[in-house]
Amino acid sequence: MRVLSSVKPLDEMAKQMTTADERPPAVEVLSAEKVFANGARGLAPIDLSIADGEFLTLIGPSGCGKSTLLKLVANLIEPSDGRLLWWRGDFAQVGQEGRRLAFVFQEPTLMPWARVEANVRLPLEFGNMPRATADPKVADAIAHVGLSKFNRHFPRQLSGGMKMRVSIARALVTDPNLLLMDEPFGALDEFTRNKLDDDLVNLSWERKLTTVFVTHSIYEAVFLSTRIIVMAANPGRIFRIMTIDQPQPRDQGFRDSSKFAACCRELSTWLAEASLQSAGGGES
Ligand SMILES: Nc1ncnc2c1ncn2[C@@H]1O[C@H](COP(=O)(O)OP(=O)(O)OP(=O)(O)O)[C@@H](O)[C@H]1O
Ligand SMILES: [Mg+2]
Predict the structure, then answer these.
(1) pLDDT at position 178 over 90
(2) What's the pLDDT tens digit per position in 121-148?
(3) Each residue of 188-229: pLDDT tens digit?
(4) How far apart are CA 122 and CA 120, in angstroms?
(5) Contacts of 167 (CB under 8 A, 6+ apart)
């Protein structure tokens, strides 16, 4: 009896560890490349595994294929060669078993004639969700981005940062597991951007999201990410990978730390090297 009771917790631990280890990656990019119809080579073959729950950022010089890679992950475009897997399956199973994907574009792309709540409700209407089920989800998503007082406003009555928040609420309302964002805060001032980054890091953590994020900002990349992919152009490819070994969620304390400064310095050097490589068109 004594032996059994001492063995049991170990068994449970082993079971838990196996379950965690067996969690499939959210996305696998398997030698996927992209040649466009006009012959332009957007991406050289890329291999990348995106772990469930990680915050992955793509950064690199203009034209290195960040948006192309993100669109492949969103299945908005297809690879010319190679393939991608979502939770070890093909894209058809996204939307089943509670696995959902949402995309946030650089522009908020709101319907100007519709109030905030109607803009956020849109994806649920596309899914024919009854109003009574949709309404609390819409209110919850708007509250999450701190816009409850503005739910009857029209986009023209909102600041740029507030419009971006509406766009994020519209992505969150579908309760995604995989959130893809292409330079969502690129047009905002630094103070607003930092505020939205703070919110995003908490949201991703609370909701256990897998996030793939594109930015040109070194500070934003280091603050948000668990892993940063530095890309180079001509052809678009992975140049280097930086892991940011800092617990989530993060706060201003991390921004003020010497570790943050050191990561930013190193990333800045890598980006300069990636730009040189891109101009020369050489492989790393
Ligand atoms: N539809 C398309 N047809 C032809 N070429 C394309 C197309 N889309 C992208 N490209 C080319 O593929 C390359 C990668 O483009 P992409 O938009 O992915 O770059 P990016 O890293 O997102 O750049 P930026 O930082 O400027 O947004 C570029 O050379 C671009 O000109
Ligand atoms: Mg782009």
Answers:
(1) yes
(2) 999 998 889 999 999 999 999 998 889 9
(3) 888 888 988 998 999 899 889 999 999 999 999 999 999 999
(4) 6
(5) 104, 105, 108, 109, 110, 184
Q: How far is the CA of 67 from the centre of ligand 1 (A)?
A: 7
Helix orientation angle between 190-206 and 160-172, rounded to the nearest 10 degrees: 10
Q: What is the 3-state secondary structure (H, E, C) of 129-188?
A: CCHHHHHHHHHHHHHHCCCHHHCCCCHHHCCHHHHHHHHHHHHHCCCCCEEEEECCCCCC
Instruction: Please state whether 146 falls in left (phi above 0), alpha (psi between -120 and 50) or beta.
Output: left
Write down the residue that tokens 């049991």 correspond to: 8
Catalogue all structural domains in the chain, each as residue range(s) with its CATH number.
24-100+178-190+208-284 (3.40.50.300), 108-175 (no CATH)
* H or E stretch covering 219: helix 218-224
Whether residue 284 is predicted with pLDDT greater than 50 in this model: the reply is no
Q: CA Rg, the chain, in Å?
A: 21
Say how many Å lie between the CA of residue 42 and the centre of ligand 1. Answer: 6
Report d(CA 150, CA 115) in Å as an integer: 9
Name which of 17, 26, 202, 170 is nearest 98 in CA terms.
Answer: 26
Cβ neighbours of residue 218 closer than 8 Å, sequence gap 6 or more: 59, 264, 267, 268, 271
Tell me which residue has its CA closest to atom 26 in ligand 1. Answer: 62
Interatomic CA distance for residues 106 and 62, integer angstroms = 15
Q: Which ligand is nearest to the CA of 275?
A: 1
What does the block give as tokens for 37? 């119809």
Q: Does any ligand 1 atom lie closer than 6 A to the CB of residue 68? A: yes
